[in-house]
């Protein structure tokens, strides 16, 4: 984030895993810089998760066990939306790093999908938070095959 002389400056990181933007104070300071803005790690994780899911070719986020546990939690009332499943973030004073575990669709170029996901995540996080994203690490955990959903929807197993 480039800052001009009236932009908020980042000062410290409270113990709660948050980025804090402190503004200038006083009657002469612009209204938008008076006070502080705190951005929790969970907010950055949600933004990154949503941005990654928007990329064509990404079927889902999360490694196998995380997806299974997340699917159960989503069915339980109050269990959460799963937006941050497969997303880990580290947020500092002015920078963030993102780790994504993804499942891609069969037949897509993994290199292209990973590049598109990186671009979309960096753009969304930087635009919405003002933090500089220093890296987006992507681990492709699985490839989604077209017939996987049909089999699970029918409930067919190998034995009866």
Describe the structure.
The protein has 160 residues and is an alpha+beta fold. The chain has a domain at 40-145: Alpha-Beta Plaits (2-Layer Sandwich). The chain is 34% helix and 28% strand. It is built from four helices and seven strands; from the N terminus they run E-E-E-H-E-H-E-E-H-E-H. It has helices spanning 41-53, 64-75, 110-129, 146-154; strands at 9-10, 18-22, 36-40, 58-61, 87-91, 95-105, 132-144. Strands 4, 5, 6 and 7 form a four-stranded mixed sheet that branches. A three-stranded antiparallel sheet has the order 1-2-3. Strand 6 (95-105), helix 3 and strand 7 (132-144) form a beta-alpha-beta unit. Helix 1 packs across helix 3 (110-129). It is elongated, with a radius of gyration of 20 Å.
Question: Could you list some keywords that capture this structure?
Answer:
160 residues; single chain; Alpha-Beta Plaits; disordered N terminus; 7 strands
Short description:
The protein has a domain at 40-145: Cation efflux protein, cytoplasmic domain (Alpha-Beta Plaits, 2-Layer Sandwich), CATH 3.30.70.1350. 34% of the residues lie in helices and 28% in strands. The protein has helices at residues 41-53, 64-75, 110-129, 146-154, and strands at residues 9-10, 18-22, 36-40, 58-61, 87-91, 95-105, 132-144.
């Amino acid at each position: 984030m480039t800052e001009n002389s009236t932009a908020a400056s980042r000062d410290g990181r409270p113990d709660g895993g948050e980025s804090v933007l402190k503004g200038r104070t006083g009657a002469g300071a612009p209204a938008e810089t008076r006070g502080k803005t705190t951005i929790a790690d969970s907010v950055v994780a949600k933004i990154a998760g949503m941005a990654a899911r928007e990329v064509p070719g990404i079927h889902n986020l999360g490694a196998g066990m995380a997806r299974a546990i997340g699917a159960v939690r989503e069915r339980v009332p109050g269990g959460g939306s799963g937006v941050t499943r497969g997303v880990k973030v580290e947020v500092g004073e002015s920078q963030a790093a993102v780790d994504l575990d993804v499942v891609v669709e069969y037949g897509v170029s993994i290199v292209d999908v990973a590049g598109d996901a990186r671009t979309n995540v960096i753009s969304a996080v930087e635009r919405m938070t003002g933090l500089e994203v220093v890296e987006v690490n992507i681990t492709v955990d699985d490839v989604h095959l077209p017939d996987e959903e049909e089999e699970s929807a029918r409930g067919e197993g190998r034995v009866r």
